[in-house]
User: What shape does this take?
Amino acid sequence: MANPLKIDRDIKTLKERALESLREAIINFHFAPGERLVERRLCEQLGVSRSVVREVLRHLESEGLVDSTPHQGPAVAVLDEATALQIYEIRAHLEAIGARACAEQASEQDLARLEKTYKNLEAALKKNDSRNVLRATTAFYETLFACGGKAVAWSILQSLNARITSLRRMTMASMGRDRDSLKEMRAIMTALRARDPERAEAACRAHVDKATAVAAAIFEAKRGED
Assistant: This one.
């Protein structure tokens, strides 16, 4: 069986590649929430030194994906429902702001760039390609905020990006979420093409509200299993 964590030494620095690899493994549930992350084992899996592994773990702790407990060591963070709902609340506000600003301020060239990222996202959603959906979604929103001149709002979301991506990965597994998400993203893009700030803002809020409801249902189901 291929090692899902093995990194390519030729593209980026070892630390960057190790960080990307371990982040993706956590987001894709290769490591379960609460699972201990043993440095020695990670060194073997990633093919890097212990000092690199420790740097990577510290970085992932700053992103909210890893928790470190005294005398127990690092473990995959458990994203509880209360935290998740706060993240969705922040997303709803900031993405609505970004969409409104984009509809109001984006140039034709800006919209062409955004259209390209949307097409990539649409293609990934139609194929139900979860890995590319996650990447394309981040690229779409990064472009949207840039087109609206909302760099500060985007930087706030970026600080939550790892946990947002983890939540997206969780909700995408829900039956029919890919189809619903495609409709919701299409509504956002349609409003942006029309340069309609109110519709763009409302479409963004509707998209996040639906994702929030899906996540809440998943958390409720997990409580029922406990």
About this structure: The mean pLDDT is 92.
